[in-house]
Amino acid sequence: MPQPASENKMGIMPENKLLLNMAVPMIVSMLIQACYNVVDSYFVSKLSEDALNAVSLAFPVQNLMIAVAVGTGVGINALLSRSLGQKDQDRANRAAMNGMLLEIASGLVFTILGLTLARTYYVIQTDITGIVEYGADYLTIVCGCCMGIFLSVLSERLVQATGRTVYAMVIQGVGSVINLILDPILIFGLDPFPRMEVAGAAAATVAGQITGGLVGLYLALTHNPEIQMSVRGLKPDREIIGNIYSVGLPSIIMQSIGSVMVFGINQILIAFTSTATAVFGIYFKLQSFIFMPVFGLNNGMVPIVAYNYGARKPDRIVKTVKLAIAYAVGIMVVGFALFQLFPDVFIGLFEAEGEDAGDLLAIGVPALRVISFHFLVAGISVVSMSVFQSLGHGVLSLTVSVIRQLVILLPVAFILSRLRGLEAVWWAFPFAELFAVSLCILFLLRVYRKDIAPMKLDSTVQTNG
Predict the structure, then answer these.
(1) 3 found inside a domain
(2) How many domains does the chain have?
(3) Complete DSSP assignment for 322-337
(4) 15 in any annotated domain
């Protein structure tokens, strides 16, 4: 099998050029993913507020599913990049094959849950018949046919680990284009397709995911020569799985906490009015256009940091992290400005035809303006937590996430809802983010002293020697 003729670009290309080279395709793919996330809600909102609420309330389950897929992928990516940086080809191959096993097994679990518990999930939250019926249809399809998203994430991480982020962009792009085309056709009906309403949004989503997954597998198996995969390698390796989950499991738990947080906030909001939960769902869709580029930046940064950690090049790690934080903060400041200037325009996109959007705007405009204050520091937190994961300190990321979302955000939101009403709930988000960024800075200093500084010292000793 072909072997790399020289060191991978992640060890030699100038850091700024490398980060942009790795991150720009991922940022584009994440923006495409943001469109993917928003388009369902946009078209569904034209049906009714119940339909919009049904899709919004599905978010915690979808987020949990994505948490497992992406968290496992983070572990795969970190182990692959470190192994390639250490020139350990056999270990890299075993990481790829065991990663495939884990993603497929996870997809099967969610398929079973989606086919059996979708309606129960909605009945627990509300007795509004329209939301329950729409929601059960949506979630049964999205979870019951979820294997595509697990294969897509696996494929993206395999090509990202070797620096082929353009392929990851293609994988995301193919799935998103399919979804964008099919959404209005299946939701509203266009001959020869019947009008499926919310179920059509779900069908379009899974069709895009499955297509992206198949394209991704093809690219990972045929156009990624630095990782050699074979059927014989499809056997569990306890040591490899342990290494994948040492980074991946904290990431899974960390992202799953987001599902708990959203579920909890929805319960606080729905006690006031179902329109408030619709606003929160809209916010989560809209904020993806701000956060997804930062996540794309992170996806480009992680293999660089992990590779150079394996190759023991501390200066490249430090410079890459500094650049990533600077770019992330810049993106988030732009997002803050947009949310401050145009909240009514953004909320208006989700106005249901034939319904009065007055309540939606009255609740949504101040909500977007208040929540967006946390954008000003969130870029530091997001990049920092990815740095911890890429260096094998997933527990630090988990700690930040638990404190931010469960220890601070949910309790503060509940207290504010009781003391000052609905308008005050939104201030819990910037309040919690300030705690998160403070912890991240402390943990970054700790990781630098523990992992990076000793490598610098070793390099100095070798040079003098």
Answers:
(1) no
(2) 1
(3) HHHHHHHHHHHHHHHH
(4) yes
